Amino acid sequence: MFENIALGFSTIATFPAMLAITSGVVIGILCGVLPGLSASTAVALMVPFTFGMDPVVSVLLLVSVYLAGEYGGSITAIAIGTPGTPAAAATMIDGYQFTKRGEPGLALTTSVVASSVGGVIGALVLFAFSEPLAEVALSFGAPEYFAMAVFGLTIIASLASDNLTKGFIVMFLGLFLKSIGLDPFTGEERLTFGIPKLMDGISFIPALIGLFAMTSVFTGIEKAMVTTKSVKLSFKMPKIKRLLGMWKVYLHSSLVGSVIGVLPGAGATIASFICYNEVKRFSHKKEQFGKGCLEGVAAPESGNNAVVGGSLVPLLTLGIPGSATAAVLIGALMLHDIQPGPLLFQTNGEIVYGIFAGLIVACIVQLVVGLLGVPVWVKVISAPKALLLPVIAAISVVGSYGYNNSMVDVWVMFCFGLLGYLLKKFKFPVTPIILALVLGGILEENFRRSLMMSDGDLTIFVSQPISATLLIMAVLSLASPIFFNKLAKKDQTIEESTETKAV
Q1: Fewer CB atoms inside 10 A, N or C side of the chain?
Q2: How many domains in the chain?
């Protein structure tokens, strides 16, 4: 084991390798900051630049872009309430609250520390449990993926605990919008209204940009019409003791993120929401979540960066991509005549263990660059709204159009921006739509595939141990917020009646 660790670090102990890691981190952060450029897009854009490079150096560059891209999305999520990547939507829930009250430095620092710790733990999981975790991933079939999607959707009970009815209305609206496009089994058009571009369904990235970026623009314009007191922003960072005190959050979320990363098709977005929900569930200060809680920033950031290591497990051991970005990495490896799979550890061991070591070094570089960048992002947020709002709008249009080079995506972005604005106006939660758009496809496809496997027998979902366990967890996840809310109201009623009698 220690020989393999030494082999990995000796492989990357060269100037080109270290330069590739540093460059990859900086490029990844910049791409993550821009709405519309996901980590997978950033990696795909960098692949042509790796032609002619040494295989180890090229892979290190791409993996570093992947890692830093996941972190970069949290910067705009915290700074302007616009997730740079889909996974940063969970970070925005608490992160943007710090900016609203003039303390963005607290959330920005926590974000980069949690991301770096999560990345290191993900790399260690990749190194230690590659083969066992790959076997777990292979045991997931259609019923298990359906149960996982159901469990993911029950997070809405936690995110919209103040008004479950509104949360579920928005969730079903998201599932309805996800059904637009071609039927995945019959190929029939559904709700496309004769628009060819909608045959592939609603593009997720333009929808995400609209729901958060354009919604913030519309909201900002409305607020600009009313005289509001500006909030003074501080560079204040959390104390080291406070950051170290969240080690349980880092560890728990990183392990959950690593396992989710192993599952093909799950990805960082699902991991970040699940990590956020689980940390909130077991926290002794649940009431602070959603109002500006550092644990609410640390959990999704640790989870989505740990996904990077987890998604490389099936890629390297089985040649199966665990995410869209991992699929791009497979193509990059094959360009250099490297065939992912069980034999890779024997034929190109230095590359495999070099990736392990490179991930750890990339996390350290990310931590340094991220901490140095906190004052810069605070200054950007301090820019006048009259300047910031047009810039956000312009980036939103360019990001949406550049996603598929289609004006349809720009109109989708504007429509979702208007939808997000109306939801906020009438105090409906926006986050359930994101969850529904992410999980809707997994839910439908695996539900129908499971019924085809069982000839319509619904017991297939409870006859499989993993799917049954996930469904039980989903029921508990849904019931617990309702139970605790009723318990809290009961205690409040008793307390009020006691006070009345005392008077």
Answers
A1: C
A2: 1
